[in-house]
Amino acid sequence: MRALDDIIVLDLSRVLAGPWATQTLADLGARVIKVEKPGAGDDTRGWGPPFLTDPETGERDDAAYYLCANRGKDSITVDMSTPEGQDIIRRLAEKADVLVENYKVGGLKKYGLDYPSLKEINPKLVYCSITGFGQDGPYAPRAGYDFMIQAMAGMMSVTGERDDLPGGGPQKAGVAVADLGAGLYAAVAILGALHQRGRTSKGQHIDISLLDAQVFNMANQALSYLVSGTAPKRLGNGHATVVPYQSFPTRTGHMIIAVGNDNQFRKLVTVLGRPEMADDPRFRTNGDRVENRDALIPMLEEMTRERPSGELYELLESSSIPCGPINTLEDVFQDPQVIARGLRKDLPHGKHGTVPGVASPLRLSDSPVSYDKAPPLLGENTDEVLADLLGLGETKLGDLHDKEII
Length: 406
Prior knowledge:
Rossmann fold, 16 helices, transferase
């Protein structure tokens, strides 16, 4: 058994935030039915390189981007612009526990697939809408993309090198953090709504906004502003309120040193050969070190440059000083802890034998995630799903195929 193996999810979303949410539900055991446009599918199937390569023709197949967010799902193709396609989706929604969509606000109303319409035929439906700016407010009609949301939510105002240093200026995160955050909050909200439904027998509409998610994820930086009235600035790899907590140069590269308290700072300067620095009034407490960051960091950098990264890492680790290497993804998947935790998963795939994936961080002792289903080919499960859930026979399915509705 898996935690959600009695739940059916109708996934009308595409790209990242919605698929990330529904992949989380699939990991927990839900049957996720991904509805895609015939002949095209999710945009991310073409967002490469890199791509899988067709083993028979050598031609490009689905992109790695698509693979990252769609394992464990069934793919069906339905032309939503046709009355017959709309009827199929309504009938599936009648059977579903959850529907996830990321169309523009009001975009599904013309098809009769908005929440008020589907609530009439399935009052228990948990309907989750993911948009850039939410269902109301002056920006609600706008399209929202991760990059612009990172900028608008303040993320880029605190990410990047200091403005007074070479290379200074705003910088986005290296992954789509606004999309991923919204997807995770969507999954959390869906689980909460399902629990509530168990008490009331009623579904509800969930309104998830990328902007809301990213502003919330500003966390301590947001509260620093709200408490002080002063907007935090970019500090490169430094930390706004903990020092030293950043990357440091070594003889052979860079590494991270993350000192979280005064005792760890005393250990650090002792290991580096300058124990008296722990009693220097400028550096005695974390508050002192934050105020005197510009004096402290160059002194520490001078010492860390004396040793190669590997030697310094072992020296600090042996003294229980938090530190770590700056890994490439090649390094990551060769790391012994990553290997021990099984974070690479090779998923069985009907066309490619196996395709790689990354393990879910959700570790449940009694209902664990299983990795038995790779991201589906476009429309791979159309006939199976429509026969199973809607009872469509071969004749009807053939007719729908001939009309290019599925």
